[in-house]
Amino acid sequence: MKTKVVIVDDHKLIAKAIGSIVNDFTDFEVMYEVENGVELIEKFKSPDKLPDIVLLDISMPVMDGFETAKWITKNHPDILVMALSMQDDEQSLFKMINNGAKGFMHKNIHPQELEIALKTLLREKIYFPGWATQKLYSSINNPAPSPTYEITPREEEFLKYVCQDLTYKEIGEKMNCSHRTIDGYRDSLFTKLGINSRVGLALFAVKHKYFNPDDFKI
């Protein structure tokens, strides 16, 4: 079975070019191409139109990549979103991550790199090229002002566990509380911090020193 890919890009020539490249890969095939998030949502009404990966342009009319990524994350969290952009600006990178994107790459990526990126995303559930990783590393390690949000002690504990390789159910077991309570902590932090994904929460926790790997060494 080939991995199903959908391309969302308002530039038809670019979408067709990317689609042609992806279809040349042995393990991937393009299901269809749409021009914006609204068209994608319409397609998603049919269960047989749901892909494994969405290659998502950021700058689009009607419904851009940021809002589309947020919608996919909320309604179809198992679908992997890879952001496509001609830019490498930090703001777009962080906003796409906060909205649920699991990867980010340039549109002018070499076909061989694109295949590696798709395989890595499918295997690891995350993919960022070197330049994006460097921006994330710099952001985490640069001194950050203390946040002004009121985060409760239990939410702080939740943030620490979010940075580990644990499911939400396992976090609930660690914190001795129900899955519904864990969902409450997560949703509360999403609202307070303006974040929409677990990756965004983890980045926030590390950057603002809520997580220290030494605290969890056995």
What does this entry look like structurally?
This protein folds into two domains: 3-139, Response regulator (Rossmann fold, 3-Layer(aba) Sandwich), CATH 3.40.50; 153-212, Arc Repressor Mutant, subunit A (Orthogonal Bundle). The protein is an alpha/beta fold and 218 residues long. Helix 6 (130-141) crosses helix 10, helix 7 (153-162) packs across helix 8 (168-175) and helix 7 (153-162) packs across helix 10. It has helices at 12-24, 37-43, 65-75, 90-98, 111-124, 130-141, 153-162, 168-175, 179-193, 198-207; strands at 3-8, 28-34, 53-57, 80-85, 103-106. The relative contact order is 0.10. The protein has ten helices and five strands, in the order βαβαβαβαβαααααα. The protein has a five-stranded parallel sheet, sandwiched between helices. It is elongated and about 50 Å long.
Gross morphology: elongated
What is the percent of helical residues? 40-55%
Radius of gyration (CA) equals 18 Å
Write the CATH homologous superfamily of the largest domain: Response regulator
Strand-and-helix sequence, N→C?
Answer: EHEHEHEHEHHHHHH
- What's the main sheet like? 5 strands, parallel
Question: What would the average pLDDT be, to the nearest integer?
Answer: 84
Q: What structural class do you assign from the helix and strand content?
A: alpha/beta
Number of H- or I-type helical stretches: 10
First-last Cα distance? 41 Å
CATH architecture assignment of the largest domain: 3-Layer(aba) Sandwich
Q: Within the CATH hierarchy, at the fold level, what is the topology of the largest domain? A: Rossmann fold
Instruction: Supply the number of structural domains.
Output: 2
Overall number of strands: 5
Spans of 5+ residues with little confidence (pLDDT < 50)? none
In the sheet with the most strands, the strands line up as 2-1-3-4-5
Q: Which CATH first-tier class of the largest domain would you pick?
A: Alpha Beta
Strand content: 5-15%
